[in-house]
Amino acid sequence: MADYDLVVIGSGPGGYVAAIRAAQLGLRTTIVDEGEIGGVCLNWGCIPSKSLLRNAEILSLFHRANEFGIYYDNLQFDFGMAIKRSRSIVHRLTRGIEALLRKNQVDLVRGRAFIRDSTHVEVRESGKLLSTDNIVIATGAHQRTLPQFQIDGKIVMTSREALSTSDVPQSVLIIGGGATGCEFGYVYNTYGAQVTIVELMSALLPSQDLEISSQLERSFTKQGIRILTSTEVISTYTSGSSATTVLRNDGGEETLEVDRVLLAIGVQGNIDDLGLEGVGVQTNQGFVLIDDQMRTNIPNIFAIGDVTGKLLLAHVASAQGVTVAETLAGQNPTPLDYRQIPAAVYCQPQVASWGITEQEARTIGREVQIGRFPFAANGKALSLGETDGFAKIIVDPEYGQLLGAHLIGPEVTELIAELSMTSLLEGTAKELGWLVHAHPSLSEVIKEAALATRNEAIHI
Length: 460
Known about the structure:
By secondary structure, the protein is α/β, with parallel strands linked by helices. It contains 14 helices and 25 strands. It has 3 domains: about 5-145 and about 270-340, FAD/NAD(P)-binding domain (3-Layer(bba) Sandwich); about 155-265, FAD/NAD(P)-binding domain (3-Layer(bba) Sandwich); about 350-450, FAD/NAD-linked reductase, C-terminal dimerisation domain (Enolase-like, domain 1, 2-Layer Sandwich). The protein is about 30% helix and about 25% strand. Helix 1 (about 15-25) runs parallel beside helix 9 (about 315-330) and helix 3 packs antiparallel against helix 4 (about 80-105).
């Protein structure tokens, strides 16, 4: 008999959730990981960055204190303390995950895993060989770089280095206008840096609905962040304590000298030195190929999370991990619908969305009805002094089925759940419009946007 029913390689939000759910279902489970418990998300991604964003939100309120009739002298702030606070939150959560693994009797083996064959995983440092009926690859991904950039961790860095660097540069160039770039752009700008964000595509957050991207660009520009879209990085070099970068767009070439360059151009899967080639696990462009059950082409080897390249979000990895565990336990879980899974960006204003965009609907020739409602017409948003943004709901004109939701504004990363639940339960825009929301609340923009799809919005 094998040592385990399941060996999970990696302890990130996919790996540890898969292991715990498998143990709950009675499977003998272990995790093998050479790094920090919780993976990149907990240690060097989702959690520490959200901690820094909270610091930036508070500092932003101080900058606007006179709007609220509050005045002060000699405002002081310490970015190093913000970094220290973020690390303390990380340490608390990693200890919590270790406790959860112990509680659920999941074995934790420290070391680098190598798949010898479909039923054996070797721990490289000790040479220990674990026999198992099933394997889950949950090794995550790492930041992509560009050939013209030499990461030194001081002037040129990725988010990994930025999350442990306690000083704020006077000027920073962020390469990449996705979620990471926008979040760091907001933080650095709030702490006083001159921020330029460069994006190769024609808009920030290029996978978002174009109206959302345009609103974010307007909001960032108002905050003092410089946005350069449709812009290519030609070259860069460092000298002393600064970096000089040559940029090119339709306006020609521009040379920009900054104190820091942050690369935020996406990730690639951690598939090297795992033994995938020897076992025959199929990959494509640096990611592991999987089916709806997260199964690779080898029937008892699964993959979850960023290493699959499906949808690079921590909550997707966790959902995939549960799918694997329940599949192995014979529960036949419902396949994940990735279009129904929300994406969130935590800069200010926040961005949250799921489903089809207006541009995608037009491209495929689909008829839609669209409802919009601005936070500027919402009493709670006005009271908070956070009026940038709007809710946009896309529905099928015949049945009122929700096809997509795109929000930008205060706390929309929390508001998106209502729309996700409505869609899951096959609710319609009409029912969203019926639902009585608390007043005053930010959630009223959801009700009004739903009513607007039927030209029935009251407050605009």
